[in-house]
Amino acid sequence: MNTKIKTVFMALLKAVLYTLFFLCVQLTVGFVVGIAIALGDAVMMAADGIMDAAAIVDSLTAKLMAQTGVITVISSIITVLGLWGFFAMRGKRFFGEISPKPLGARYIWPLIVGAIGLAGFVGIALDVLPIPESIMSEYIEASADVGALTFSGIISTVLLAPIAEEVVFRGLVYTRLRRAMPASAAMLLSSLMFGVLHGQIVWIVYAAFLGVIMAAVFERTGSLHSSIILHVVFNLMGGYIMPSVPPEIQYIGLLASLALISLGVFGLMRKRPAE
Length: 275
What we know:
The protein is mainly α. Helices cover 81% and strands 0% of the residues. The chain has one domain. Helix 1 (3-47) runs antiparallel to helix 7, helix 3 runs parallel beside helix 7 (151-178) and helix 5 (108-128) crosses helix 10 (224-241).
């Protein structure tokens, strides 16, 4: 096999395996939590004389969706610790594998400003784009379960999920692809994998779009901390701040968002005299 083809094949294989590991952890934790809820429901309903299978399924589904934050917290921790253990067993430094360089302090403010602008832009775009009502209703319902105003919901959405996703999709998937192909191709492929795993069609599209941006930020800074900061601030703004913005100021908000994005890009691309 040609050396170049073999290198690309191995990079793709590693990217797929890391993605599958991430997915398997999510599904396994969800399954275990689901079984625990089902057993508890079955016992209580049997004690009450309720043997309706449809009622049991409806109750299980509602309770499982209500535990989305808990499932994400547990699966995110297991994902990161599992990968850390995997590299430790191979005698490799986990943090050296996922983040080649520390983050320069000069990048922090552009990342925060840009993420705020990006959250505003995406939120307004979802409101004004002609997305079919059925698809949008499905997205809103799914988002409500994920971004619930509970301790587990906030911790998972704003902190743990961004860290786990960035470790996998930028720290491992993107870096392995980047070693075998141009940055643009690695960004596209890793972002498609990232998007598809979000399941719901609206999430798939904008997660893939955001994946490209976060990979580009990672490429620019060489530090996984940069994409984590971007992801954390985006989720905080998009999940808990932007929904409270009045729709009457959408277009003003759009202009403000574009201005913040531009400012963030300028800050990220600005070079020091030595660069």
